[in-house]
Amino acid sequence: MSASDSPVVPLVEARDIVKRYGPTTALADGRLTVLPGESHALVGRNGAGKSTLVRVLTGLEAPDEGTVRFDGEPAPALTDRDAWRRKVACVYQHPTVVPELTVAENLFINRQPLQRGFISWRRLRGEAARLLDTWDVRVDPDARTADLKVEDRQMVEIARALSFGARFIILDEPTAQLDNREIERLFARMRGLQDSGVTFLFISHHLQEVYEVCQTVTVLRDARWITTAPVAELPRAALVEAMAGESIEVIAEQGLRERAVDDAAPVLLDARGLTSEAYQNVDLTVRRGEVVGLAGSSASGKIELAEAFAGLRTPTGGTAELDGERLKFGSVQAALGAGVGCVPRDRHEQGLVAGMSIGDNSTMTVLDRLGRFGFIGTDRKRGFAAELIDRLDIHAEGPEQPVSALSGGNAQKVVMARALASEPRLLVLINPTAGVDVKSKESLLARVDSAREDGTAVLVVSDELDDLRRCDRVLVLFHGRVVAEHSAGWRDHELIASIEGVDHG
Amino acid sequence: MADTKAPPVKPVRVPDARSARAVLVRRARELALVPALLLLLLLGALLNDSFFTEDTLISILASSAALAMVVLAESLVLITGKFDLSLESVVGVAPAVAALLVLPAAQAGWGTELPAGLALLAIPLVGAVIGAFNGILVVKVKLNAFIVTLAMLIILRGLLVGATKGKTLFGMPDAFFSLATSTFLRIPLSVWVAAAAFAVAGLVLKYHRVGRSLYAIGGNLEAARAAGIRVDRVRLGVYVVAGVLASLGGLMYTGYVGAIGANQGQNMIFTVFAAAVIGGISLDGGRGTMFGALTGVLLLGVVKTMLTMAQVPSFWIDAIYGGIILVALMIARLTTGRAQD
Question: In whole angstroms, what is the distance from residue B96 CA to residue B261 CA?
């Protein structure tokens, strides 16, 4: 570095990274060059390949092709965890500390200072306090780690990484669980650490944070490297365009199928001032036959809000009325009774009982209608299920087939069938087309259209623009507040800009 | 390279009073059962004049020693986040194998008539082998710990009944009973051994890297792995150690009873889990101390003795004992303020 004209050796350089998982290519052309001392942003929509790149950069997985170099030297072998720890560390959204142990012990886990073979707790505490002081982390070393706030836990993990000698820290959506003041404190700390020579790779869905704290940004899209540029030279519109892959002019055609929502149609769902940890003071109305979309990043609170209507969560404040009747929160039974049908967030986790048949799964919500005194009429159930299979175009051998044998698309149709079985007045769909193929997607979305024609009110929560395009209007949540409303015919970049929070505060 | 170590110069923080209080609270949780234990002793003394005598107290300890060893064993497994139900069968099988090795064929033995010392060595060996077998199935083959050890519980019980043809083994050399019969300061050797085992386990769990790694593994497996702990090896080792400890518990039990019945240790696992959970060991792993487990054992021992001294009809004693365990769990939940997950 003595000669001023010689280029700076990048701290981290990943080239031509290819990573496949079975038939899917998670990363087709991953590139990243991080210079020492900078804060480098890595952005891209869900599935763009960010997490895969992080796994390769932290040595959790070897790339199928391509090279990773640290300080110009090849990356250590995958099995040499100690060597990796000295190069790089990642602070994930989920904690990698042991909750029941103290902060001090977590910092020195499995390398506790010994005295004649036994742990010296006095020295352990002393060294932990010194380490925390060195990096100005104001956390009590004797505190139980489970009791820490998220921001403190993140700082402890950063301090631990620094104590191994790593000076390259990856922060994977560190702001997702923080409120605004905590985010400001995190950024202040990042700047402080940057001044003392720490380099960051910062991953966030919130583009304004990128502009606030980073100097360089790399964009991934569809598993490929798109661009790397100083943030100062990349205006927001260009950044959104790089992420969305569509220029602002191209999209004029999209989503222009206007649908006449009868403004006089009665309001079916009327929510006022809904508040919980994930969202604040949300007002929301859905009319008969109207489809309303909820968009936002994963930390926006959109899923928590939708789950409240389905009885899966209890907001701390606010009310919701369905057709004039007060909705009872926190009870799925009550929500079903009131006429709410729901396609839950994750079909594997909440949607289906894999070992049971299509018939059992699809009629799970309506068993009381299929027989008397809690007994279930087998024939009636089979008939009911057969009708649902037919109506939803589920490709299956019959009602007796277990759902575990179905493809993702058909399994999701069973979940939809279950939601429709109770003939709901309000249909809440959370990620209704996640992980399904194009044809199933169309058929699922066609259900939304026919539900609308029947006069059902539909609430669609999704990360997929195709799902949201069907909506009469889309509300955008950002950090738990409704920040924008787009009526049908919005352009992709407009919606993405409000989801990423670049068109406001 | 990492040549930029100059940290920002910032005032050094002085630990505040809050941390001292936090330490106190943690201590208090560990000692949660002590007041209950004292209360029970007081209650026992009030109800029965002969309760608070040296004889009674020693007999409580003597009758708890075998249970204590198995609770210790189970606690170690639980802290790593696993299960071992088969320990109660180890309590029967391990000393029975040793007895069968010494006894002549005429006394239902195998006729090998090994010297007593050698046969006694077989006890921890049997415990270790069973523990290793469990450990391999659970840790390496990744079978469900609950079911594997439940199956082992049944298999070992069946083997014991089969090998003894359901008969009670007796007439073993005195060495088999010396743990319970010989005393030091009027207290049986088995109590001293159990106390020493608890002390060593407590020290290792607190002051040794291996001990701390049990908590790390049970608390957050991935974090432990990322910290370079050899997770599988530690878990397997814990199963082996647990088998050995339970087999020693079996020897103590044999000495206490004076013979080996085909049902030795049967249904003990219920009491073992109750003592561990009452003592603050989490069934989810990563939480609990040896001191807590010990207070759990003593609490149940005191209760059992009190019931016997109160001359509760033996037909009812199990129902009442079970009920008291349930109540103790509820009280422990209230005093520790923690979910017993």
Answer: 9
